[in-house]
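User: I'm putting together a teaching handout on how multi-component assemblies are represented. Below are the sequence lines for each component of a complex, exactly as they appear in our records. Could you produce the 3D structure of the whole assembly as C-alpha cells, so the students can see both representations side by side? Please keep the chain order the same as the input.
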Amino acid sequence: MPKLTIDGREVTVPEGSSVLHAARALGVAIPSLCQRDGFEPSTSCMACVVKIGSSPTLRPSCATIVTEGMEVSSELPEVRKARRASLELLLSDHAGDCVAPCQLADERHADLPRFLRQVAEGDLGGAAATLTTAGIDLDDLDGLQVHRAEKACRRGRNDEAVALDRLIRYVAAHRDHPADAAGAPPEYRAWSVRLGRMTEAEQAALLAGARPGAAVPPADAARGYTPDEARAEALRCLHCDCHAAHSCKLRDACEEYDVPTARLRSQRPAWAIDRSHPDILHEPGKCIRCGLCLQAAERAGERFGITFAGRGFDMSVQTPFGVPLAQAVAAAAADCADVCPTAALSRRDANRSGESNAP
Amino acid sequence: MIAPPDLEAVDRIVADLGSTPSALIPILHAIQEHYGYLPAAALRRLHETTAITAAAITGVSTFYDHFELEPSGQHRISVCHGTACHVKGAELITDAFGRQLQLAPGQHTDDRGLFTLGKVACLGCCTLAPAVRIGDATYGNVSADTVERVVGHFLSRERRKEVRAADPGTAARRAQVEFRIGLDSCCVAAGTADVHRALQDELRRARADAVIKQVGCVGMCHQVPMLEVVEPGREPRLYAKVSAQDVRGIVRHHFPPAGVLGRLRSFLSRNIDDLLTDENWPGVERHVLEVRDRPVADFLGRQRRIATEHSTELDPLDVDGYRARGGFAALRACFDELPPEAVIDIIDRSGLRGRGGGGYPTGTKWRIVHGVAAARKFVICNGDEGDPGAFMDRMILESVPFRVIEGLAIAAWATGARDGIFYIRAEYPHAVERIRAAIAICEERGLLRHEGFELRLEVARGAGAFVCGEETALIASLEGRRGMPRLRPPYPAMSGLHGMPTLVNNTETLAMVPWIVRNGAEAFAALGTARSKGTKVFALAGKVARGGLVEVPMGMTIREIIDELGGGVAAGRTLKAVQIGGPSGGCVPASLADTPVDYESLLEVGAMMGSGGFVVLDDTDCMVDVARYFLHFTQTQSCGRCTPCRLGTRRLLEVLDRIRSGAGRAGDLELIEELAPHIRTNSLCGLGKSAPNPVLSTIRYFRDEYEAHLEGRCPAGRCQALISHVVTDACIGCTLCAQHCSTEAIPMNPYRKHEIDQARCNGCGVCKVVCPVDAVEVRARCPS
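Assistant: Of course. Below is the structure of the complete assembly, with chains in the same order as your input.
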C-alpha cells in the first residue's frame, strides 16, 4: 500500500489507486469532468491536473497511479490557474444556456421554466412555491414586473412570448392548491453560460419541440385564464434552461473556479438538438469529448454504439455509418445520458412539453 | 445512381488479412486500393462479416487523412505543404492547380472526374520545393506558371504508359562500366525516371558493355537527377541535373561510336576530358560536376556518414554489396560473441540518444525492455516521419534498408524480442516496398536466425496521421484503433503493443546501431559534444543554395551547416533565422547562428532537435507567418483527446490568424503568452506539449514583427492582408500577370502597362512570380 502526500497531508491508498482517488480519500476536492469510477480514464478534460514533485508539466490525477512517496500539489496557484485555463477552453467551444433567458432577465431570477412546467402539469401549489421562493409576493401583484422576462422569452422572436404575467396571476388566484412533492426550486446560481442570439436555424430547432401557435388569449380578459387556457399557454414554453443545469460537472467546476465565459470564444459553435431518439436527447454543442458515452454503449454491447469521428478540433461524437441515434444506442441509451458530464446527452424530461412523447 | 459496388472484394480482403480488430487499418488500405475510396457499402459489409465493431470502422476511417470516404477523380494531385514548400509558395501552387482544373471554391474534383486536388503534409522532397505528386509521379520545383505544363506532362506520360510494352530491363551481367542512378523519391521527383529510360535506350543503341545500377540517396538533392559513371581504373564522374536529352551525350562520352573519328574522340576524352566535353556536349557540360570541385567537396566532405553510410554507392537491395561493406557483421558479432547485456552496454556507452526528437538515451530504453519478463516482446521501427520538412527516415529506409533491418535485429537480440515491426508512413510507398523486399531477402538467406533466435518481421503502413509518430499513438494505430496517445507511464517498454513490452526506436536511431556495434562505443562517443554523441542527419532546406540531407557530427554550429554545407543564402539576401526541429522545434535567429547543434544547446535557445528539419529563412520570410504555418500544422494534426491541445491550439491559431490578417487587438500578444505555456504544460502528449514552441520562439526573438503586424505592417512583405501589389513602369504588357491572376484583379491590356484592381486583389502574389521583367512591387497596404 503506497503512501503519498497531497498538499503536505499524508495518506495511504491501495496499490494501483489514482491520485484523484487518493485526493478524495483525503477530502481534497479536485474538479474532474471526464472521469467516472468503473470507466477507463479518458484523460481528456484536464481539469483534474496536479503537480507531481517538482515536474514542470502537470498531470491528470485521474490516470496517474500513486507511487510510494509521491508528493502531489493540488492547490498551488499554478495548478489552479491551469485547471481554470482548461475549463475556459472547454467553455470556448460550448453552446447552450445554463439558465433560460427569462430567468436570467427576471429581476428576482425566478425559475420561470420550472414554474411553467408546474402549471402545465396542474401543480399550481408547486408553481406558487416556485414564485414565492424567488420573492414574488402572490398576495400583492399590483407592482408585478415580468416584462423583462417576457421580453427575453425566446418564443417572442418567433411568434409571441409566453404570457408570464397572465399565468402568474392565474397561479396567484389558485395558490391554495396543495404542492406536489417536488420540493423547493433549486437555488439560483449566478454563474452561467449564455447562448446569446440564436441563428434562424437554431431558433427553428428550438421551436420544433414546442407547441405551435401564438399566445393563448383568455376568453374572458377580466377573469384571466381558465385552467385549460393556462395549461395550453404554459405548454408554449421552449424550456431554454439546460437539462443538466443543476447536475452539470462543467458548470460546477467553472463556478468554483470563477471561469470567464466568453473571453476566448471567437466563434460560438452552433447549437443543435437531435430529438429523434425516444428516450434521450442529443445536444452536440454541449459535448466536451470525454468519450464516456462511447464506453457505456460499448459495454452494453450495442450493435452500432457511438464513436468519435474526425480528429482534433473537428472531432465529434457520431453514430457509426451515420445510423439514427435510436438505432445506434437502444438498451444503453439511458446509461449514455447518465454518464454524460454535461447535457450533451440527456434523458427526455416528461415534464417538458414536447419531450414527453416519443416522436 | 451509382450501382452498388461488388462486395466480393471485401470478403477476399478479409479472408486475406484476417478479421481481427488489429487488421482494420491494413483492411481499409486494401479496400481503398481496390475501390479508390472507402465505399459505405464496403464498410458495412466489413462490419457484418468481421468482429470489428461499427464504432471502430467509422472512428478509424475518419481519423486518418489517407482514407477517402468519397469517390475522387481518376488521379490525385497532392500539393506538398511541407515547410520548405510553404516558404516557397505552396499556397500559390494549390491556387494555380485550382484555376487550371477550373475548380469552384470548395470543389476538389474537376468536372470531368479526372483529377482531385488535395494537400499533403509533406512529400519528403523538400529540396525540390515546391513539390507536387500526381498519381505516382512527383514533380519538383513547380511554379504557378508551370502548372499547366505539369498537368500536360502527366497526361502524356499516362498515355505513353498505356502503349509502352513491358521494359525488357537491363541484363544484370558483369560489366566494365557502371552507371549509377538514384531512384529514390527525390530523384524520381526531379525526373530521374525519364533519365533512366533514356539511359536504357542509349546503352542498348551503343551496344555498351555497361550496367545501370540503382543507388540510394546521395544527399545532394539540389543537383538531381544525378548520374555517376564508374569505370574501372578511372575516377568516377558525376553528372548533375541531367535531363533525358543529355543522356546520349553522356553515353557517347564513355562509349564513343566506332570509326577513326570515334576512336580519336575516345582518346581525347580519356585524356583531355574538359576540352572535349566543352566543345561537343555543352548541354551536358552545363551540368557536369566533379566530386573534387570545392563546393561539392565541402558539401560531402565535412559530413560524417554513419546512418547514411554507403547510401550513395550501394544498390539498396544488393545484400551482397551491403555485406561486402561490413553489413550484418555487427549482427553476426552479436550472435557469436555478444550476449544481450553486452550489446546494451555498448549502446549505453556510445551515448546514443533517440533521433526522433526526444533524445532519450537508447541504451536505457533497451535495458528496460530487456529487464521485463514477458511471454512476447516487440521491437518497432518508427518510420512514421511526418514532420513537414524532414525526410531522413524516408531516405534511410529507401537507400539502406538492410542497415535498418540489421539495427532492428540487434535491438531485438538485446531486448529479447522476437517480433519486429516497421511502421512506415503511407506517403512513402517506395520505402514500404524496399523494406518489404529487403525483409524477403533476409528471410530467404536466413540472416535473421541464430540458434533459438528467430526474428519475425512485418511492415505496417501508417495512414496519414502525424500524431502516430508518438509511440503510444503508433501502438494504438498498430492495434487497429484511432491513433490517440495515452498517458505514460506505463511506458511501452513495460506495456506496449497488445500489452507486451515494446521497444519503439526511430529509423535513424536504428540505422546508427550496426555502425556502433561494428566500430565500438568509443568510436561513436568520440564524435559530438559532451552530452550529444555521434552524428545527426538534417534535412537542409529553405533559402540555401544547396539543399539536401546532411549527416554531421553533433556540435557543428548552425552557421557552419548553412555556409559550408548549404552554400549560404542567396546573394543579396540575408539570413534571418533557422527553423530547427519542425513543428515541435523553434526558430533560432541569425544572431545565435553560432549555437552548436546538439540536444541541450538547441533547447536552451528555444528550439529542439526534433527529427532534424533545418529550414533556412531569409529576410523575405515573415516570422509570424512561419509560426502560424507550424501551429496550423500541429493544430490540424491534434488527435483531439485532451482539452489544452484540441482547443488550446485552435484558439492560439485564431489569435495568430487575426494578427496576420491585420485584425489583431491590443492584448493579443499577452493572450498568446498566456495560452502557449498552458498548452505546453498541460497537454497529454509530446505533440501538444511542443506545439507552442514555434510561436514562443518567434515571439521571443521577433516580438517587433508581431508588434508591427498589430500596427498593420508586415515587415517582410509576406502577409497577404497587409500588403498590396503594384505594377511599375517596367511593365512590358505581356499579359502574363492578367492570365494568372486568381481573382481577375488585372484586366488584360496587351502591350500596355497593366493595373491591379486593389479591391479585387487578394494579395496572393502570383503576378509577381510570373512577371518576366520584375515589374510587380510589394508595398504596404494602406489601412482602409
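A couple of points students might notice: The two ends of chain B are 50 Å apart (CA to CA). The interface with chain A takes residues 40, 43-44, 47, 53-59, 62-63, 465, 482, 486-487, 489, 635-651, 654, 674-675, 678, 680-682, 684, 689 of chain B (CB under 8 Å).
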